[in-house]
Amino acid sequence: MTSLTVVSNREKQEKPASRKSKVSYADCLDFLRVRDNVSDYPSVDMLLRHLGRKTGSQSTSRYYLMRLYNFCLSTNMDPDMLISVPKNIMEKLLQDYADSYNDGKHSLVYINDNVLAPLRSFFKRNGFKGVMELDVEGYYVPPRYRKFPEYIPTKYEVYLIADSACSLRDRAAILTLYSTGLRNSSLRAECYRDVKEELRKNIDNIFVPVYPEMKVIDPNACKGNIPYFTFTCDEATLATKLYLKEKELKYGKIEDNEPLFSSEYNQIEKKERSAKILSSRQLQLIVKEAAKRALGFERGERVTPHCLRKAFESVLHSELAEGGRLDPKIQDFFMGHILAGARDTYFDKSKIEELRMEYSKLSFGRVVVDNKFKVLRGAVMKAFQGTGIDPDQLMEEYVEMIKRLKKG
After folding, report:
1. What domains are defined for the chain?
2. Which residues of 9-20 are buried (b: 16+ CB within 10 A; e: fewer)?
């Protein structure tokens, strides 16, 4: 009797759940017998140990386990049974499983990277390599292929989108996404404590850190465990201050460990709303609905939080307010990318104020005069850095002096 026959005759076992039905991560861990990143199934433990060495990412481990769990449900087998199935039969099972996702709802990249890759890794860690490697075909992805079209808004359109937001929270979140380039998960994992001290100061460009400990809040935050930081533009800073002031009036004192942009879901107790993190889908809808109001349904439907990250990247590559371009190393750092070769090792990440000054040269202003004012203010700040002189007060005194001279 072949293993495939055994599978088809397992009448006593429950019918496997459809992949479309919702399954929780807790159910996944229970089924795969995983606790503290160790599994009672030797085959699963081999995968976990490999992922621990390769990436150490909890979000990656979570995704691989969920994919394995779904495949187990679809075949009605546990993980150790999977690796005992003859090679030719498992190839057919895995190919059929991958092909079932080619239904017009999933992209070809998703099938290759999110369906096949985790399962191939599981089998490879359990002896299916070399001559035993499973011969399962992936899908050809044409150049510049996208299943779902996207629209990258211009700077002018980003401000239209922000001004079309339904609340102070939504407007602040949109402007922060745009001016920091943060990923969806990283923005949602930002806590009030991360920006509290700088928000209390008279600073236009607020320091916004991204760090591995964010994964406790959202496993997908701080991609690749790469710590970095970026800043907010002056309009995003002001929008965030206004939102937090409103939030404090509605919910009382904001605790340090509360999310910077909370869910405020009205189906839970009021005292809990301020502490609940936004879901990934909520943030997508905040951006998408505002974009549809500002740009129309067709274009707005194609705008996502990641599109705002790409709009931020466009600003990084554009001409600075004072002319010239931002150093490519700084551009990569602000995007949260590892610098190529040895450049990352020698890039000085400790000089926050110098990087803040470089960031302040970016053209986020709505109109040209805003950008020119930023250049002037930045020059005054640099000239009097460390003296304790307030650059804004100095500029006001200078303007008054010019007025007096003109009258005289």
Report:
1. 14-132 (no CATH), 155-366 (1.10.443.10)
2. eeeeeeeeeeee
